């Protein structure tokens, strides 16, 4: 909708929402289109994570904990994880997790 | 992609106030209510309206206004307090972020605008 007021083109403010899953996280975007500019909000909805606890091992290594949480969330089952890989970069553990998820989808009867 | 239920709730309207087209967009964030009230289609002056944490008298809670962006003049604070105080109170004392771009800030107009903001309740 646009109208002319005192010679200038007047356009109604428009609000636009969209979301995208980025690295397993739901990211939400909110745009408010103003005259000659816009307001943008980016955020994530707090995905409720299952509870997890470290039974044994190094408390500073959170890889097992977070992997267990994500697997529990995905499978809706109780999950025990023993993670015996050296601490490497994030990308590596992400690939490991990807492979597990692939197996979960391929052979769900084994989990 | 536009999901059915966006995480950010907003309501908007356009009304004439003494012959001037006035737009209101209210958006609810978890820590702020964002109110854009504009007669220019622009954000204008950004004012933060926060309830004072130490209010010694419960019956008369006080609010502080701070101009975050734009011309910091007394009238801006007066308008902001008049327009946003009730929003904060109704939203459980949440702070209000107000974008104000007014051509007409007479008392009569402000009163009408308050009603327009009320009609865009998201809190």
From TrEMBL, chain A:
<dbReference type="GO" id="GO:0043248">
    <property type="term" value="P:proteasome assembly"/>
</dbReference>
<dbReference type="InterPro" id="IPR032157">
    <property type="entry name" value="PAC4"/>
</dbReference>
<protein>
    <recommendedName>
        <fullName>Proteasome assembly chaperone 4</fullName>
    </recommendedName>
</protein>
<dbReference type="Pfam" id="PF16093">
    <property type="entry name" value="PAC4"/>
</dbReference>
TrEMBL record, chain B:
<dbReference type="GO" id="GO:0043248">
    <property type="term" value="P:proteasome assembly"/>
</dbReference>
<dbReference type="InterPro" id="IPR053720">
    <property type="entry name" value="Psm_Assembly_Chaperone"/>
</dbReference>
<dbReference type="InterPro" id="IPR018788">
    <property type="entry name" value="Proteasome_assmbl_chp_3"/>
</dbReference>
<protein>
    <recommendedName>
        <fullName>Proteasome assembly chaperone 3</fullName>
    </recommendedName>
</protein>
<dbReference type="Pfam" id="PF10178">
    <property type="entry name" value="PAC3"/>
</dbReference>
């Amino acid at each position: 909708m646009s109208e002319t007021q005192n010679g200038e083109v007047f356009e109604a403010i428009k609000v636009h929402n969209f979301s995208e899953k980025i690295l397993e996280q739901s990211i939400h975007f909110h745009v408010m289109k103003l005259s000659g500019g816009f307001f943008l909000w980016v955020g994530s909805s707090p995905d409720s994570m299952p509870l997890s606890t470290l039974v044994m091992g190094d408390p500073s290594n959170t890889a097992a904990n977070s992997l267990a949480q994500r697997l529990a969330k995905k499978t809706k089952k109780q999950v025990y994880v023993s993670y015996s890989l050296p601490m490497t970069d994030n990308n590596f553990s992400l690939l490991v997790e990807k492979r597990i998820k692939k197996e979960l989808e391929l052979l769900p009867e084994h989990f | 992609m536009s999901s059915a239920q966006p995480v950010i709730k907003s309501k908007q309207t356009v009304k004439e106030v003494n012959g001037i087209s006035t737009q209101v967009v209210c958006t609810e964030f978890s820590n702020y209510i964002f109110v854009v009230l504009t007669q220019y289609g622009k954000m204008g002056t950004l004012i933060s309206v926060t309830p004072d944490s130490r209010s010694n008298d419960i019956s008369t809670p006080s609010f502080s206004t701070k101009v975050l962006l734009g011309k910091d003049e007394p009238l801006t604070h007066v308008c902001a307090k008049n327009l946003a105080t009730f929003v904060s109170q109704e939203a459980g004392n949440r702070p209000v972020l107000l974008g104000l771009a007014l051509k007409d800030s007479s008392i009569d107009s402000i009163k009408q605008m308050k009603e327009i903001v009320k009609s865009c309740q998201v809190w």
